[in-house]
Each structure stands twice: as C-alpha cells, then as structure tokens.
C-alpha cells in the first residue's frame, strides 16, 4: 500500500521509524511536509510573515502521491492544522485517514468525533499499524486491533494497548530519506531510548504512564550501544552531519550504558553532540564522560526553584541542592550546560529573583523559558485548577503555545513572567554586576516591553549554539526551495 505521512515544522523521529518499518514490510511511504515558516510552533511565530509564506498546495500535493492511506502524526499545537487538511482531503477524495501521535493518544474519543478521521492509533503503534494496514488492504475490517480506535455502524470502538516493545534493536533504523528533502541533515537527530523515569504533571509521559500502567516496571527501554553506533556510522557516511542531537528525555539515566557507549562514540563518530538530562542524573563522573566524548550542550530541566510548585504542581522531587550539584559538576568539567525554565505555575517575584541570582553565579550558556501549556489528560490540569474552557482548549489543541503565552491568562502574572523571561534569555550579554543592578534597582520591571528574540539570538551567536545555526539553516534551506520552485514554475509557463 501507499502511505502518505503529513507533518509540519520539524523533523519527526516517530514518522521516520514508522516509515522504515512499513517499507520493510512491503509498503511504500511518502511525506508531504509543511515547513510552517514563521509559524513553526517551536521558536518563531510572526503571523504576517506566516500568511505570506503559507503552504497553499498541500492537499494537491498529498493527492499527487496517489495514497491508499493518509497518516497524520499530531501533537497538540498542530491538531487544528491537521484537522483542517484532513477535512479538505476528504472533500476531494474519500481516502482512509489515520491520526496518530501524542494528541490523539491523549484524547482518542474526541479525535474520533471528527468525520474526517477514520482511525486513531494510540501509543507506540508499530505492530498495531501494520495490522490495521493489512486489514484495510484486504478489505476485512478488524475492530479488535490493540491500540486502534475505529468506527463501526456509527459507533466508536476503542481497544486497549498491547505491551510495550522491549527489544528496540529489533526495529530498523529510521528512514531519514523521508525528511532529507525538507530539513537539513547537518544536524542529525537520533533517539537511543524510549520512555522516561519520571511523570512530570505537564509532560506527555504523565499520560503515557497511565496508558501503559501494566508496563510501569519496564517503561524505560534503551537500544544497545552497538545498534545506536551502527545507525550513526551509516548516517555519517550518507549525510556528512556536523553534529548530533540525542533526543532522549533523559540521556544520562543509565550510567553503565554511558560508560559503554560514550568512549566508542568518541572513537568512531567524534562530532559534537547535545543531550537532555535531569538534575538527579548528573554527577562528576557523568559530567566528565559527557565532556570527554564531545558534548557541546547539556540541557538541564530545572523548571522552577519553588519547592511547593515543584512538588505539588509539577510532580517533581529534586531539590535546589540537587540542581546546584548538577551545575557544579558541569562547571567543574567546563561542560556547557543550558537550562530550561517553566513559568505560569504560580511562581512569585522572589522565586524568579532567586533563579536569576543563582544563574548569574553559575552562568548557564543559555536559559530557555517556557510558559505553562496545558496538554489534554495530564494531571497538571487538575493540579493548577484549569477551567472548563482551558480543558476544552487543550483537548482541541486550540490554545497558545508554550512560546506565546501558553495557558497564562492573568495579565499581571504574564507581565512578571515577561520581565524575568527577558532577563534570563539575555543573561549572558551582561556582566554579573549589571544583573545585580537590574535586580536591586528594579529596572527589570520594564523589560516586558522588550522583545527577547533578538537578544536570544545574540546570546546564541556569542556562545556558538549549533542548534540555532541549524534553525537558521532550516529557514535558509526552505527559502532556497521556494525560490527554485518559483523559477521552475516560471520556466514551465514560458515553455
């Protein structure tokens, strides 16, 4: 069968993995990709420019692939985008449409209410998707496939999930060729593991752990070092990538695995890489291993220093002392560490001052600031007292993103957040005494008027942040494509 995936704004490892598996089993896969320029849901949203560069022929391009199945991988921020395109496809041609991804997984019943959606596949879906495609191809509807929601005689039928796949080495390497025409491959994305040790209230793992409650003891799984290196060796030959991004939720959670993998990575791959970690999973040995093997960027999820917010609202257990120990270990080995913060949980002005003072002392390379965004079926909705309207917005994927204000409605709180967001994002541009002056003089109270993006870019350039360069490269890459396509169309008209 011919399966056409649709996605927007970034590379998607899940789609690449599914594509590889489907092609291994004899199916053909294609991708229609919306670059979502200036509306990418991650960093940059400029409505005027987004309208100017809007991808207008997406439905026509989908139909041009002559698909038997259209499959959307949907996160909450792009749910409305996906539904809009799915409706347009259905009006043009009655092709079975499947929704997968974290948003449909969190609200499969709500997703199945949409006339344009024929099936929802929840959770980790490799085996279930193969079974579903076989049943569609044979025209023998099977409404009992695990992980699959379907419609029969006007009724929605939902099934329980099958156990999580434990042997990740049994899966083929992801099909990077699917995204290579759309995103630059100089920055190679890879996942070595699935699952997370934690279930933070605001995160997708909060709901996924509920979905896979019977697999709680084996929720976190990891590929072998050799399997990961095998993928990287082949990819390095093919794509000549300049750096690697490990997309694991906590790259450092298994110290023994790191001891085996990182020295081999240094010898065989030897390009700079970024990774994500948790304050409870970095010590002196881990920091040393990361530094020696070429880690140029370690992202530490701090989120807040307010212990009540951390425990009661976020469902996190690390202490301020744990965070400081992590920063000290990174500093000791001159490991570049980046910090993630989250706002909108009820932090006070004093909480934010404390954070700025601490970061002014330890100097993270960059501080990324996110706003609380409600995602459906996560416990943060109850913990923070989300209104019925906010719950509905979350279920629809119709709220502001975590970079555009998220779920924060209170104007006074939003202004406070913007003041400290600016200071944190631009911290590296000022000497320590100036940061202290901002705090003591209360100059920061007017920072909400200043757009932080230019200052954030200056910090990135100052500190040689490869990911920002990749982001710029993504826009350059797609602008070149637009120009080539326009020139090609003009030439065809002349001919």
Walk me through what this model shows.
- 44% of the residues lie in helices and 15% in strands.
- The chain is α/β, with parallel strands linked by helices and 495 residues long.
- It folds into three domains: 2-158, Cobalamin-binding domain (Rossmann fold, 3-Layer(aba) Sandwich), CATH 3.40.50; 173-464, tm_1862 like domain (pyruvate-formate lyase- activating enzyme, Alpha-Beta Horseshoe), CATH 3.80.30; 465-495.
- Strands 2-1-3-4-5-6-7 form a seven-stranded mixed sheet, with helices on both faces.
- Helix 10 (255-268) packs parallel to helix 11, helix 14 runs parallel beside helix 17 and helix 14 (349-362) packs antiparallel against helix 18.
Strand content: 5-15%
Second rung of CATH, namely the architecture of the largest domain: Alpha-Beta Horseshoe
Radius of gyration: 23 Å
CATH class membership of the largest domain: Alpha Beta
C-alpha geometry: globular
Instruction: Characterize the biggest β-sheet.
Output: 7 strands, mixed
The fourth-level CATH homologous superfamily of the largest domain is tm_1862 like domain
Output the number of helix runs.
20
Looking across the biggest beta sheet, what order are the strands in? 2-1-3-4-5-6-7
- C-alpha termini separation: 36 Å
């Amino acid at each position: 069968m011919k399966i056409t995936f649709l996605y927007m704004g970034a590379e998607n490892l899940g789609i690449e993995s599914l594509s590889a598996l489907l092609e291994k089993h004899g199916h053909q896969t294609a991708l229609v990709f919306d670059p979502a320029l200036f509306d990418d849901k991650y960093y940059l949203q400029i409505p005027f420019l987004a309208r100017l560069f809007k991808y207008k022929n997406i439905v026509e391009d989908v139909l041009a692939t002559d698909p038997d199945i259209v499959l959307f991988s949907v996160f909450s921020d792009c749910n409305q985008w996906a539904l809009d395109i799915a409706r347009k496809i259905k009006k043009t041609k009655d092709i079975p449409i499947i929704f997968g991804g974290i948003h449909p997984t969190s609200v499969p019943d709500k997703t199945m209410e949409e006339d344009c959606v024929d099936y929802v596949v929840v959770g980790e879906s490799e085996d279930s998707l193969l079974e579903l495609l076989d049943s569609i191809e044979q025209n023998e509807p099977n409404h009992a496939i695990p992980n699959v929601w379907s419609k029969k005689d006007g009724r929605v039928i939902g099934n329980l999930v099958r156990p999580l796949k434990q042997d990740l080495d049994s899966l083929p390497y992801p099909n990077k060729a699917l995204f290579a025409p759309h995103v630059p491959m100089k920055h190679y994305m890879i996942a070595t593991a699935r699952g997370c040790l934690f279930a933070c209230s605001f995160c997708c793992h909060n709901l996924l752990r509920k979905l896979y409650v019977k697999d709680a003891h084996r929720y976190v799984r990891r590929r072998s070092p050799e399997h990961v290196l095998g993928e990287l060796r082949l990819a390095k030959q093919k794509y000549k990538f300049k750096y690697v991004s490990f997309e694991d939720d906590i790259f450092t959670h298994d110290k023994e695995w790191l001891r085996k993998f990182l020295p081999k990575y240094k010898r065989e791959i030897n390009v700079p890489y970024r990774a994500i970690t948790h304050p409870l999973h970095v010590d002196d040995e881990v920091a040393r291993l990361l530094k020696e093997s070429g880690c140029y960027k370690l992202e530490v999820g701090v989120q807040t220093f307010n212990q009540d917010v951390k425990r009661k609202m976020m469902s996190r257990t690390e202490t301020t002392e744990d965070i400081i120990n992590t920063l000290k270990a990174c500093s000791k080995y001159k490991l570049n560490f980046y910090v993630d913060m989250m706002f909108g949980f009820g932090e006070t002005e004093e909480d934010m001052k404390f954070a700025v003072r601490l970061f002014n002392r330890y100097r993270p390379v960059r501080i990324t600031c996110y706003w609380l965004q409600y995602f459906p079926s996560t416990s943060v909705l109850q913990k923070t007292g989300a209104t019925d309207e906010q719950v509905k917005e979350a279920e629809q994927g119709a709220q502001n993103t975590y970079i555009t204000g998220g779920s924060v409605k209170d104007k006074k709180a939003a202004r406070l957040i913007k003041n400290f967001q600016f200071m944190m994002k631009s911290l590296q541009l000022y000497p320590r005494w100036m940061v202290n002056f901002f705090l003591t003089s209360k100059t920061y109270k007017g920072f909400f008027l200043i757009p932080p993006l230019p200052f954030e870019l200056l910090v990135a350039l100052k500190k040689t942040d490869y990911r920002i360069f990749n982001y710029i490269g993504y826009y350059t890459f797609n602008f070149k494509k637009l120009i080539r396509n326009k020139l090609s169309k003009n030439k065809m008209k002349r001919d």
